[in-house]
Write a structure and sequence with these properties.
Elements: E1 4-9, H1 16-25, E2 31-37, H2 48-58, E3 65-70, H3 74-80, E4 85-90, H4 93-109, E5 114-119, H5 129-137, H6 148-157
Parallel strand pairs: 1-2, 1-4, 2-3, 4-5
The structure holds coenzyme A.
Length: 161
């Protein structure tokens, strides 16, 4: 049976850090479902539809990555998708506390689905979707930090094409 993992997040927008994590996740899992959260407390720049569409474009040549929006509890979604794991990235120690909390709560809700953490590649240690948006908004160079499709979309949003 295929080993499936759900990689959940807001992905507003997807960065090369996320891509690197997915590439490495594909060495462990047969299939990764990129679950884009509908319910997020974050005020997003891209609408849910835009985030899904962008991610689908980025992974259009990777049949092992499925992009989907999800609603409600992550752990229920993962079970419904027959995932054996939730994939998350750790960048710095500062990520740890929040990730630990999420992982423990998810384990309490369903102990059959494991949370698997991969360390972010050192090249992406300092990036987050927020910092990318801030730099793009102020006209800074973001090429090489995000997929091309995202770079174009950010430039369109901020009117710097
Ligand atoms: N490289 C670069 N950046 C990375 C990264 C990596 N490898 N991994 C994470 N990040 C960044 C993201 O860009 C994001 O940046 P931002 O805060 O500037 O937007 C930040 O780290 C973490 O965000 P993200 O990975 O998108 O996760 P999230 O914290 O927004 O998502 C959910 C959290 C969606 C997983 C969580 O809210 C959830 O499970 N929601 C569903 C409801 C639920 O089940 N709740 C109960 C949970 S116990």
């Amino acid at each position: 049976m295929d080993k499936i993992a759900v990689y959940p997040g807001t992905f507003d927008p997807l960065t090369n850090g996320h891509l690197s994590l997915i590439r490495r996740g594909l060495m462990i899992f047969d299939r990764i479902i990129l679950g884009i959260a509908c319910d997020t407390p974050k005020k997003t720049l891209f609408s849910l539809e835009e985030r899904v569409e962008l991610a689908k474009k980025v992974f259009c040549n990777e049949p092992r990555v499925v992009v989907e929006p999800f609603k409600g509890l992550l752990i229920k979604y993962a079970k419904q998708k027959k995932a054996i794991a939730i994939l998350r990235g750790l960048r710095a120690v500062s990520d740890f506390e929040y990730e630990f909390q999420l992982a423990l709560m998810n384990r309490r809700l369903n102990a059959d689905i494991q949370t698997v953490f991969l360390m972010t590649d050192y090249k992406w240690l300092y990036i987050s979707s927020t910092i990318i948006k801030e730099v793009a908004k102020l006209g800074g160079e973001i090429s090489g930090l995000v997929p091309l499709e995202v770079e174009v979309a950010l430039k369109e949003k901020y009117g710097s094409t």
